[in-house]
Design brief:
The protein is of the alpha+beta class and 167 residues long. The chain contains 5 helices and 5 strands.
Length: 167
Amino acid sequence: MRIGVAVVLLIVAVLWFVFRNGEMKHAADGAAPVSSEDEQIQNIPTTPGVKLIEKNPFIENYGEKEGSDLKDLQALRDIVTDCQLILKDFDRYHLPGNPEITRFLQGSNPEKLAWIPAKHSSINAAGELLDRRGTPVFFHRLSGMKFEFRSAGPDQKHWTDDDVIVR
């Protein structure tokens, strides 16, 4: 019994530390948050009360100038895996395609946690996540918890030999 209580307290402490360190730093006098212009743009929530997980593979790697389609899709896979670990019963959510999954990862989920900022250069007006060349990423749900992520590659056409695929 004591071990169970200790484990729960440890988990709560770790979550508190992680979420607290992700928040913007405030000035010592309690004034408005201090952040760069880029951070202010990224931190605009998609819905009220959304908490952006600022230090995650998507924000740090997706679309990075020195990156690649493979690294982008690996970052996407990593945040989806993280989302699945945090949200209970992830497999029950109906997420049929790119815009629905993108919105879910932007905080339109029961926990109001976002891995993708509301304003990101890789999201088009239709709410679709784009690859490096501006083609929507194809999400294929292989099972309740397993996805395949596909970039169309240099020819910008899905289902050709130059597609980049990550599972």
